[in-house]
Amino acid sequence: MTKPSVLILGGRSDIGLATARAFAAQGHPIRLAARQSALLDPERADIALRHDVDVTLHDFDVLATDSHAAFLDSLPDLPGIAVCAVGAGGDQEESERDSDAAVQVMRTNFEGPAAIFTQLANRFETRGSGTLVGISSVAGERGRATNYVYGSAKAGYTAFLSGLRNRLASKGVHVVTVLPGFVATRMTRDMDLPAALTAQPAEVGAAIAKAVARRKDVIYTRPVWRLIMMIIRNIPEKIFKGMRL
Amino acid sequence: MSGRRKLAGWGRYPVLDARLYQPRDVADVQDLVQRQPGLIARGNGRAYGDSAVNADSTIDMRLLNRMLAFDAERGQLVAEAGVLLGDIIAAFLPRGWFPMVTPGTKFVTLGGAIAADVHGKNHHRDGSFRSCVDWIEVMGADGRITRCSADQDPQLFTHTLGGMGLTGIVIRAALRLRPVQTGWIRQVGHPAANLAAAMEIFETSADATYSVAWIDCLGTGSQLGRSLVMLGEHAVPADLSPEAAEDPLRPPAKGKRTVPFDFPRLALNRWTVRAFNALYYRAGVRNAGAQVVDWDSYFYPLDALQRWNRIYGRQGFAQFQCVLPLARSEAGLTALLQAIAQAGAGSFLAVLKRFGAQNSPFSFPMEGYTLALDFPVTSRTLALLDRLDAIAVANGGRFYLAKDSRMSASTLRASDDRAIAFARMRAEQGWDGRFHSHQSERLSL
């Protein structure tokens, strides 16, 4: 029996690629979608060779929302699983100075991903099956001075995923929210991250494949972040506003 | 992407303070080559000594690990330098392909296998790793990438194979795989009571695809060089049990164990090693004859024991591997074994192997016999290793740089007249200013 294809939106991101590898290892065909997707040809070849599965590349711009329907129509088939790994950390200081930059971060992390999932959700609902995996962030759990623009967009996305899951629960469509803590990626390569709290992309990819198989709703990677965020969420605002985190 | 840390080879001796960089793509490597005054590429750290350590900048190539193309007509795989041999097996054995030449661990990178021009149990028939390498792309001191092969820039090709990373950074290569029908090996064990008997078996088994001997280096007198010679052939489905023949290319996965901590120094001494060797030999005699074993147990028995290098304790261990020309092999091996037995410094991972003709001008193997042993690092064993060096040199032997961690520059020059020419070429090509390791400095390469 052939397995359903897995669509990776944001196929250039380290987490997106790691997730593609985890599903390819299980024998799923892979659709990598990104801007200038032709540049991903070495990754396409590597995943196809290692796992002996079909891997195709597709141009996709999360901000060009009016092209999303045509993008989905152009895929070889309607995927069984869609993972959105699109995101951009942005520069918090720049976002504070320049509202256009802030809007760009919000659109990339919330508006775009929510728009493409709206269309995918409707197609999955019509079919009566499918899994949507949204990669949000622990930064969306509480706004902090150092990254609240990014965090607020992720908070919006987390709420969107939660609502979508609620809406589709009875329609055969499952929604997984992934809340990574620190991950060693290109985005964080110059940051000095604590090793015990920092996941490797492959770890996140494997956790996502497992969460899909077990129909988990919300996962933290690494799991210690569930505890950390519970504590951070519960600090009274009076104290929190004076803290430097 | 960079940081200072303690770095060593698999033998964990010497341990050096080094800055390690982890490039993610070719552009990152280029940037490092153009910025750093001196550097060396490092694969998975399976060379035993200081071959892949440069204190100022060691370049960890493991993130450049993509497989790029496979031509199923010729069995040719194009891949980046950081791909592990084990990854190649995982991807291609289920499709009926296996590496043409493999060392005793699958945890080596493609770049490392090329830099050391590794050999396997089939050297007598198939030669060193070079035999399966069609071309190599090497980044030079200017950051430019040159493709070389036996026909195209043969000087760079020849000296990159076995050149220990001193000709540039291996970026990509094309290697040919061997078609196989199963993931199993038909193994036949032959006990040999002494060295002469072991060599006799090797000489009459030139047709065997694979041959290697475990040698008891604590045997003396009539038992000097007592060995178990193991021959192997790729099995065909008819050789397998009905159960295994159902999915012949996917033998059941083996369990893994990890050595949990550094063994204390006293754990390995002449009595424990003597007892181990006696038991091992007796088991070998009992199990002599044919059996079918899976590829992983046959080629990589030690890979099942992760971090086995800890059994030698925190001080680490040193490997000794030399090759002696055929005409001097028996006399030279006898002298080496006598010196080892006399020192009572047995090694239980002692291996004897017959090499075939030399097929790669700058590599370690030559026609004759190679002996490989390891010893925990102590002042006594380091002195013994110097004596073994002298015996090997007196018998026309030379040494495997991938195993070396302590040889002197004068020993290298006395054993191998190619060393001076290589050092001169490095100077002429401008490689010496840029690509160097702790080992190349120690050996004045």
Description of the molecule:
- The complex is a heterodimer of chains A (245) and B (445).
- With 245 residues, chain A is of the alpha/beta class.
- Chain A has one domain (6-240): NAD(P)-binding Rossmann-like Domain (Rossmann fold), CATH 3.40.50.720.
- Chain A is built from nine helices and nine strands.
- Chain A has helices at residues 14-25, 41-51, 68-74, 92-97, 99-127, 148-168, 201-213, 224-234, 237-240, and strands at 6-9, 30-34, 55-59, 81-84, 130-135, 173-180, 182-183, 198-199, 218-221.
- In chain A, the strands form two sheets. A seven-stranded parallel beta sheet of chain A has the order 3-2-1-4-5-6-9, sandwiched between helices. Chain A has a two-stranded parallel ribbon with strand order 7-8.
- In chain A, helix 1 links the parallel strand 1 and strand 2.
- In chain A, helix 1 runs parallel beside helix 2 (41-51), helix 1 packs across helix 7 and helix 5 runs parallel beside helix 6 (148-168).
- Chain A is globular, with a radius of gyration of 18 Å.
- The termini of chain A are far apart.
- The model of chain A has no long low-confidence stretch (mean pLDDT 95).
- Chain B has a domain at 184-408: Alpha-Beta Plaits.
- Chain B has 445 residues and is α+β, with helices and mostly antiparallel strands.
- Chain B is globular and about 60 Å long.
- Chain B has helices at 26-35, 85-92, 110-115, 123-126, 154-160, 195-204, 242-245, 270-286, 295-299, 326-343, 379-394, 409-415, 418-429, 438-442, and strands spanning 2-7, 16-21, 40-42, 58-60, 67-71, 76-80, 97-99, 133-139, 145-148, 169-179, 184-192, 210-215, 227-234, 257-258, 289-294, 305-306, 317-325, 351-355, 368-376, 398-399.
- An eight-stranded antiparallel beta sheet of chain B has the order 15-11-13-12-18-19-17-20. In chain B, strands 5, 6, 7, 8, 9 and 10 form a six-stranded antiparallel beta sheet that branches. In chain B, strands 1-2-4-3 form a four-stranded mixed beta sheet, with no helix packed on it.
- Chain B contains 14 helices and 20 strands.
- Chain A binds chain B through residues 42-43, 45-46, 49-52, 186, 189-190, and chain B through 1, 24, 66-70, 77, 87, 90-91, 94-95.
